[in-house]
Task: structure prediction
Amino acid sequence: MSIFTNRDGSRDGHHKPAGYSAFDLFRRGLLGTQWPRAWRSHDLKPSYDVVIVGGGVHGLATAYYLAANHGITDVAVLEKGYIGGGASGRNTAIIRSNYLTPEGTRFYDRSVKLYETLAADLNFNVMFSQRGHLTLAHSDSALRTSRWRAEVNKLQGVDSEVIGPEEIKKLVPYLDTSEHARYPILGALYHPPGGIIRHDAVVWGYARGADAHGAHIHQNTEVLGIEVANGRVRGVRTNRGDVAAPVVVNCTAGWSSLISEMAGVKLPITTFPLQAAVTEPVRPFLEAVIVSGTLHVYVSQTDRGELVFGASVDPFPSYSMRGSLEFTEGLAGHVLELMPSLAKLRVLRQWAGLCDMTPDFAPIMGITPVEGFYVDVGWGTYGFKAGPVSGETMAQLIATGKTPPLIAAFDLARFAEGRLVGEKGAASVGH
Amino acid sequence: MILIPCPWCGPRNVSEFRYADEAKVRPDPNATTPERWRTYLYMRDNPAGWTTEKWFHRAGCRRYFTLERDTVSNAVRAAEASREV
Ligand SMILES: Cc1cc2nc3c(=O)[nH]c(=O)nc-3n(C[C@H](O)[C@H](O)[C@H](O)COP(=O)(O)OP(=O)(O)OC[C@H]3O[C@@H](n4cnc5c(N)ncnc54)[C@H](O)[C@@H]3O)c2cc1C
Ligand SMILES: [Zn+2]
Result:
């Protein structure tokens, strides 16, 4: 791609954000001074080199890596609400790489690696807690899928193994591993590097990093249309005016069909709500993240002590983010099957976010039939963990014009050509 | 609670039903190309607003029917030819 090769490399907007350090915390605590804002607001310029639609973790990470890795800083992130107001601020923050396909395993493993150093890279505490991840198997077929995944994972160098009920009991004493349970636990896929993270901090850290490099983050800026001429993207129309751009990236997850439609690009995506709930905080007792496909439920305990519960997507597609009583009822029943001792715990909050489901439970990344219009979508119920690697690879694609091998299998053309990736066995309940 | 108007049983709780995809015309498998068949299989309109869908009355008459639904508000209304799918 030629549009960036003649850039003078100037970093007009570059500014160093206030460093966060123990000393600074102490000093500001003593003096009572305010922290400066982590990112700035700007007027909307009439043109940018790159316009990214969607201010979730994917859009912001793409902006950050465009600048940090490729020196492309004339970038706007357009967000119709506030950054992290989509699925990136509503997910249950599970990070793991024990997927079913070699393509998926390699891809998510790179993301875990990036997450491991992200706090240092961004100078922002993202509270990544690698506390181990257990996918329970309650049936022979689930156990077989677990073995399959463990072998695929090991081949890719990912720490993943099948363990039996005694070992599970040692890791999670409160789990009902007896044979009398309605769905006895036969084993589990154990993934020690898996864990949870502070999702808002990841969003804010990338926003701060992108801003520091000169990218413009525009909140309350809704994309209303996309200009395409002669098969090439020309820019976007927004509620704040028109913006010309030779590159437009669709990072809008649950809304991605609507944005792609504006460019005339059809997607194999259906938007489903996914709900989650959180309890009052209790003393730490649950180390690992627990997922049960059979019971359609997963549980983790945050650093604050709350239990976070989630399930599979709602039974029919919708753009509504309302929670339902059916969800909480079903959830409570299933959680109690796993951990009867939680019966007295109270649910404090419940919410929903939108998930862009694909036919093969794998993402859609890369070029489209419209030149300059890229997609980074199809993140379904599992895309938070992919934020870093997606930003890194999308930035590389935009900067070099070449599709990185790590995402080649996730191209949009695979649907017309019948090359689906088949990730469902590792991604339908365990996010 | 969302009530779904089944054309045979009347309004029932949504939990009795299974969503069965966007309403669309299935190409003749003997006359179509692989590309067109895959478009039918995989591509979706996924609109935000009123749309026409197929539903299945799983815990009732166990028949398919056509329904109109607003995917933003989840308001529903019977399709004109609701008994046809
Ligand atoms: C309840 C729940 C639990 C989940 N749990 C996990 C988990 O444990 N692990 C995991 O990896 N993933 C999980 N996910 C999935 C994950 O949250 C998403 O895949 C991921 O956050 C997608 O990030 P994104 O940046 O692509 O999209 P989003 O964060 O959704 O951002 C898209 C943004 O686009 C904006 N937008 C939409 N339309 C426009 C427009 N016209 N103009 C401008 N902006 C627009 C939206 O306002 C939104 O902020 C979960 C999701 C939910 C809902
Ligand atoms: Zn009926």
About this structure: The longest helix of chain B spans residues 34-42. Chain B has one helix and six strands. Chain B has a mean pLDDT of 95. Residues B 6, 8-9, 57, 60-61, 63 surround zinc ion (ligand 2) (CB under 6 Å).
